[in-house]
Amino acid sequence: MKLITAIIREVQLEKVREALIAAEITRITVSRVSGHGRQRIEEMYRGQKIVPDLIPKIKIDIAVNDDFVDITVDTILRSAKTNGAEGTVGDGKIFITPLEECIRIRTGERGSRAI
Question: 13-22, 26-35, 52-61, 98-107 — which is least confidently predicted?
Fold first, then answer.
């Protein structure tokens, strides 16, 4: 079992969500987060250029069985990129971490059956 965490642009959320549903990945958790990496956006505020410290992003968490890791990652990669196949700085990141245990609260099921 793995936990896939993707940080993407806000505007890409619907495209990513629809692509995941088409790939039969329907159980996701979405959070609004802020952060920055290499991406810098200049904005005008009262006639002055400013660079915000934190940029709004979307965090998607998906717990998957090992068989679905590649499908999930490939789907996010294809759908989260902006500017065609090359992508743009600030398109986001994907993190894959081992998931030690999963427990469904309603039934008490554990492990891959709970996902």
Answer: 52-61
Here the CATH number for the domain that contains residue 66 is: 3.30.70.120
Output the CA–CA distances (angstroms, integers) from residue 50 to 43, 53, 57, in the order listed: 5, 9, 19
pLDDT at 45: 74
* Structural domain span for residue 6: 2-113
CA angle 23, 59, 53 (to 5 degrees): 145
Domain count for the chain: 1
Tell how strand 29-35 and strand 55-64 pair up. antiparallel
SS3 per residue for 12-76:
HHHHHHHHHHHCCCCCCEEEEEEECCCCCCCEEECCEEECCCCEEEEEEEEEECHHHHHHHHHHH
How confident is the prediction for the chain on average, in pLDDT?
90
**How confident is the model at residue 75, as a pLDDT?**
97
